[in-house]
Design a protein that fits this description.
The complex is a heterodimer. Chain A is α/β, with parallel strands linked by helices. Chain A is built from 21 helices and 38 strands. The chains are: A alpha/beta, B alpha/beta. At the A-B interface, β3 of A face β7, β8 and α8 of B.
Chain lengths: ~950, ~290
């Protein structure tokens, strides 16, 4: 039944409204429940007859409330629908065909399209059949002739999602013709774009049946159509359809995991259908961007996926250095400089060539064997860029003799050291970059000094091949073309050994420009297959590819249109990822010339609104209010009020206690116990001891480190945090400056993995203090017997007792011996000069200390700071032992700093002064004394 | 019901304030706290009479100043003084142990507080205090208030048995059972106790009758209930009845030679205690 703009699904229920006057009468006749009151003086009213025994009436507004609830319930049960656009009358003309444009252009207003589709059957008779035709092509198409009843139709419409690819109206029309369906009425829900296909389509539909069209045209930007990038930033073009008002939107640059790195305006001018968003981002940030998206728009068209093809170079690094100390190697500087801009692979040179990168960087490789050199040459001829750095090996005596062909210009045999002890010259700054050089335009920093370089033999070609010079004109970077490729030589090391260049920001730019001399984007294999790794769904989100998505040939990018087989998304292939964007070069043209015979539905016409549930819930709310009112009238509300008060107090109390708890959480977060152990160790300097598994020994060790820590706090500026115990196999060792190991009486051997981690720790500069605690055994000598078995395989350098004048004797206190619990024991350290210089073991500072005097027990204190264990020689010896502990820590932390001889003259002078008349005690009124440097 | 300790504490606080109450000057002169003359010779402070010396009298009892005026010997006698007895009674009816607002004290509790405060003051002055129909005899001294407090809380007897000897009676109730019924109950008591106080404690709701609408009233402690369609229509009648009741109560008290003290629980307990105190002083002066 239709009543104005309202449809009633169950109109007979409205007869219930007749019952309202009856309800009115009954409600009036029934008195409200009396209030219960106590009155001790009730006796006084004995014999009093009330003048009016007729009870008080239910107040009129309560009556109204209850009648209203009844009326709302009756209306709600009649299931009214607000449908301003509903057709009334000729509804038995035949099945209804609903055509939905479900391509990506519909995604923006999909909700409206769906609700318009849902309301298509409102106003039709109960057994009218519905048919659905979708215009986006699918591999398996549904037959439009399939008859759907009302429930199945709704379920189908609700499960529809927009597709990430475009629509094909002609094909859809073909399918409709094939199905021989004769609809009584057609509703076409369209995106309102592309008049070229929409016009004929609408005409063909009108031939079949009366046509209503609901065009939900995207408001705002329809699509991002183009991306262009240069060195400084990225520009994206976006289009909109059929709107001429100026409007501003925003566009975000997102990483692959969805973090927004930048946002910029996308402003459409009056009357313009296209706009451009410009991002100017530092290159490091640009390299992380995976897609651009119009903010707040969830459609596949407003996302632009950015592949890696035009932004990342692949660079191979090969080095002649060992990697024992990664932070000191030359290649570290190159890697750090290139990491933001390039995909770096490292390995053997011959493997790198096989990978065919854009550029290969070699740091100080003197000799390249014949096979490799040939392969390298071929690779350069093919367009690779070989960038070499000089170094001691290249400048060695063999350089030039074997005719190293992989240099842009012939080199002299030896390197040139500038500013050394025997040269007159000062270290040279960088000169201006030649105009013809790729470096032109960069500003040479003034504070860079080159101290050593290899020299090119002067020749007629040299000036042309020079990309950068020193201030005195000698070449710093030379380059030469070989076939398609380029050969670049930096005449200094990649590390800071020969020059300050690696410290400078210009070094990064020089490297980038050198790499750019390689072929860059030279993906030539048209046959390479790219398989989809992430695809866009209809809502513009990146998802796992569906089963129907098939790989794409490299040559097809830019040619093939996205479809179900090739959905828009990121494709992974031999040369990185390639993106397939659905809206590439899309032109959004709104349809304006709808056929006159079609009925165009407005936004409000196409929508219906079901009021039944709303009315029923309103009735329920009114009944709830009535319940409260009835309670109030019967005098029951005070109890209710008290209950409410209790609830309120509970809630407020809860609210008050909650912040308290969260505060407590904050405060406990500060506790060290809650921090990750590694984090805690990295944040504060602290000592660590190795767990031996023997509880007594570990406890003594911990107490000893606590005691040492207390003394350090009091006497020095070394303020270590509480010591950690570490497990050699699992914990991170590098965050501790020193590890202590006190062997228990019956030690368990450490595992091979533990020892190898300990070796790595010491090789990277960590210090290890081992106390065998055997000193108490009379006549035991300085035995390392326990050590051999416990730490089998420990990379031990030659050991020697501490020499008399070693830094350990004066790194803080001046000491003669190193007593622990047992006096007169020897402490063994690395023998000086024994270690091979090339091993670079921390400037000759010993990293290993082995003693047997039970030092940790001598330092050990309990909770109140009282010594725990006795010491040979009493408190004096204990003090000496603690002083040794401080010296040890100072030595570990400062290395050979105290070995520095600079202060010797001042110290001697001070020692030579008369007693008590030192510098510090000199007469303040007298003339200024000599200031000790 | 109020607990013993609370009752004691409140009454003590009240009793401490009582001497500060401004008393009627006339009453203050008349009252002799503690003992009252018994109009015959005995041990006491006040002079009573001189009488002729008898052979049985000890020689040191001779009043030489009087005897020197003439030839005969005289003995000086003083008036007999004894302590008076004040007896309390609290109505155990459920309608009396009731308050119109849960936050307010019940009428019975208020009556207990006031009576115990008076008891404390009186005991301090040397009077003998106790309960009518109490399990214990009236007592003197420091322990008397303790006993009175226990009895006030514990005694639930509605019996108004007259005491064996002359005493001052304090009867606390709301007297809503009808004046005639009360006259019958008090009559035997009044024959023994020539003077007494009716302490009528009422709740403010009983004076205001703030009820409207359809209301079912019930009297606590009884099965009596009445349903009024519109409670507000009987309000005027009720107030008239209440005024008549109070007037009759006053007449009852006067007819017995007793005093009526009215108190409402929305007034301070101090005010009730002071009124009771004043009434007792007046009676004490008369006695």
């Amino acid at each position: 039944m239709t009543l104005g703009p309202f449809l009633f699904m169950a109109p007979l229920t409205l007869l219930g409204l007749i019952a309202l006057p009856v309800i009115w009468y009954i409600l009036r006749a029934t008195p409200p429940t009396p209030k219960q009151e106590q009155l001790p003086s009730l006796r006084l009213l004995e014999g009093v007859d009330p003048r009016e025994e007729t009870p008080a009436r239910t107040p009129w507004w309560v009556l109204l409330l209850r009648l209203g609830a009844a009326a709302l319930a009756i209306l709600g049960l009649a299931m009214p629908i607000y449908a301003p656009g509903a057709q009334s009358g000729d509804d038995a003309s035949g099945p209804v065909l609903v055509i939905v444009d479900d391509g990506w252009t519909s995604a923006a207003r999909w909700g409206e399209i769906r609700s318009a589709a849902l309301s298509a059957m409102d106003g039709e008779s109960r057994d009218t059949a519905a048919h659905i035709l979708l215009t986006a092509p699918r591999a398996i198409e549904a037959d439009p002739a399939e008859r759907l009843d009302r429930v199945a139709f709704e379920a189908r419409i609700r499960s529809l999602e927009p597709q990430a690819w475009g629509i094909d109206r002609a094909a859809a029309l073909e399918r409709l013709d094939e199905s021989r369906l004769q609809p009584g009425r057609i509703l076409w829900l369209t995106d309102g774009l592309d008049p070229e296909s929409a016009g004929p389509f609408a005409q063909a539909l009108i031939q079949k049946a009366p046509l209503s069209i609901y065009a939900a045209r995207t408001r705002g930007p329809v699509a991002v159509t183009r991306l262009s990038s240069d060195a400084t930033g990225v520009q994206l073009s976006a289009v909109r359809a059929g709107s001429s008002d100026p409007s501003t939107h925003f566009m975000s640059a997102l990483t692959l995991d969805g973090a927004a790195l930048a946002t910029t305006d996308l402003a459409f001018e009056t009357g313009q259908d296209a706009a451009t968003a410009s991002f100017s981002l530092p290159p490091a940030a640009l390299s992380r961007i995976a897609r651009f998206q119009v903010t707040g728009s969830a459609t596949p068209g407003t996302v632009w996926l950015w592949d890696s093809a035009d932004r990342t170079r692949r660079v191979g690094l090969a080095s002649g250095d060992s990697t024992a100390q990664p932070l000191l190697s030359d290649i570290h500087y190159v890697r750090k400089a290139l990491e933001p801009f390039a995909t770096i692979s490292e390995g053997e040179l011959i493997d790198l060539i096989d990978e065919n990168p854009d550029a290969i960087i070699l740091t100080d490789i003197g000799q390249i064997d014949g096979v490799t050199a040939t392969a390298l040459n071929d690779w350069i001829e093919d367009g690779g860029a070989l960038i070499r750095f000089a170094g001691p090996r290249m400048a060695g005596p063999q350089a030039g003799e074997t005719g190293d062909t992989l240099v842009p210009a012939p080199l002299r045999r030896s390197s040139r050291a500038i500013g050394g002890t025997l040269t007159w010259e000062e270290p040279q700054p960088l000169g201006a970059f030649p105009d013809a050089s790729p470096f032109a335009g960069l500003t040479p920093p003034g504070d860079i000094r080159v101290r050593q370089q290899v020299l090119a033999r002067p020749g007629p070609e040299l000036a042309r091949r020079t990309w950068a010079r020193l201030a005195d004109g000698s070449p710093l970077v030379t380059a030469d073309r070989r076939g398609e490729g380029t050969l670049v030589l930096f005449h200094v090391t990649a590390g800071p050994d020969w020059s300050d260049l690696p410290y400078a920001g210009v070094f990064v730019d020089m490297l980038r420009r050198s790499i750019a001399a390689g072929r860059g984007e030279a993906i030539s294999d048209e046959e390479g297959l790219y398989s989809p790794s992430l695809t866009l769904n209809g809502a513009g989100q990146l998802t796992q590819p569906s089963a129907g998505a098939t790989p794409l040939r490299a040559g097809d990018f830019g040619v093939v249109a996205p479809s179900e087989e090739h959905p828009p998304g990121l494709y992974q292939g031999p040369a990185g990822t390639r993106a397939l964007n659905v809206a590439s070069e899309y032109r959004a043209i709104p349809v304006t010339n709808w056929p006159a015979a079609a009925t165009l539905l407005g936004d409000t016409d196409a929508r219906t609104f079901r009021l039944g549930g709303l009315l029923l819930s309103a009735a329920l709310i009114v009944l709830c209010i009535d319940l409260i009112v009835a309670l109030a009238l019967a005098g029951r509300l005070p109890a209710l009020r008290r209950g409410a008060a209790v609830i309120a107090i509970t809630v407020i109390g809860g609210a008050l206690t909650l912040p308290g708890e969260s505060l407590a959480q904050f405060s406990t977060f500060e506790d060290e116990a809650d921090l990750d152990k590694e984090t805690a160790a990295a944040l504060d300097m602290r000592f660590a001891y190795i767990e031996t598994g023997d509880e007594r020994t570990d406890r003594a060790t911990k107490a000893g480190l606590d005691g040492l820590r207390n003394v350090l706090f009091r006497r020095s500026s070394v303020e270590p945090a509480a010591p950690h115990s570490v497990d050699l196999e699992t914990d991170a060792l590098d965050v501790y400056p020193v590890l202590f190991l006190a062997l228990p009486d019956t030690p368990e051997p450490f595992s091979e993995a533990a020892v190898s981690r300990l070796n790595a720790y010491m090789r990277n500069g960590g210090a290890l203090f081992i106390d065998t605690r055997r000193g108490g055994n009379v006549g035991a000598g300085n035995s390392f017997e326990g050590l051999e078995t416990v730490l089998a395989g420990l990379d031990t350098p030659p050991l020697a007792p501490v020499p008399e004048d070693h830094v350990l004797t004066r790194s803080y206190y001046l000491l003669q011996s190193f007593p622990g619990r047992y006096s007169n024991r020897n402490l063994w350290i690395e023998a000086t000069g024994a270690a091979d210089k090339t091993e670079r073991r921390g400037d000759g500072v010993s990293r290993l200390f082995v003693g047997d005097a039970d030092y940790l027990a001598a330092w050990a204190v309990d909770d109140r700071g009282r010594p725990i264990y006795s010491v040979d020689g009493g408190d004096l010896e204990r003090e000496m032992s603690i002083r040794f502990g401080i010296n040890l820590i100072m030595y570990i932390l400062t290395g050979n700093y105290k070995e520095d001889q600079v202060h010797i003259p001042a110290l001697l002078e001070r020692l030579g002064e008369d007693d008590g008349v030192g510098d510090f005690d000199s007469d303040p009124d007298g003339p200024d004394g000599e200031v000790i440097p | 019901m109020i607990s013993l300790t609370t009752l004691r504490a409140e009454a003590e606080a009240l009793a401490r304030q009582l001497p500060d109450v401004s008393l009627q000057a006339a009453a203050a002169d008349l009252v002799h706290p503690g003992a009252a003359g018994r109009k015959r010779a005995g041990s006491g402070e006040q002079f009573w009479q001189y009488r002729r010396y008898a052979q049985t009298d000890a020689a040191d009892r001779i009043d030489w100043r009087r005897s020197a005026r003439g030839d005969e010997f005289f003995v000086r006698e003083t008036e007999l003084e004894t302590a008076r007895t004040i007896l309390f009674w609290n109505d155990p009816h459920a309608g009396f142990d009731w308050a119109g607002d849960p936050g307010r004290e019940t009428k019975a509790d208020r009556a207990r507080t006031i009576m115990l405060a008076l008891g404390i003051t009186l005991a301090k002055d040397g009077e003998r205090i106790g309960m009518i129909a109490g399990s214990r005899a009236p007592s003197l001294g420091k322990s008397a208030p303790d006993k009175l407090a226990e009895d006030l809380v514990a005694t639930q007897s509605g019996d108004l048995a007259p005491p064996r000897s002359q005493a001052l009676a304090v009867i606390a109730s709301d007297f809503y059972d009808g004046v005639d019924a009360w006259r019958a109950r008090i009559a035997p008591l009044a024959s023994t106790c020539r003077s007494g106080v009716l302490l009528a404690v009422s709740d403010p709701i009983e004076h205001e009758f703030p009820f409207v609408g359809r209301t079912r009233f019930s009297r606590p402690g009884t099965a009596l209930d009445r349903l009024f369609g519109r409670a507000e229509t009987v309000r005027d009648t009720y107030l008239e009845k209440l005024a008549a009741h109070e007037e009759q109560l006053q007449k009852l008290a006067v007819s017995m030679g007793w005093t009526l003290v009215r108190h409402r629980t929305d007034q301070t307990a101090l005010r009730g205690a002071a009124a009771l105190f004043a009434a007792l002083e007046m009676l004490g002066g008369k006695a």
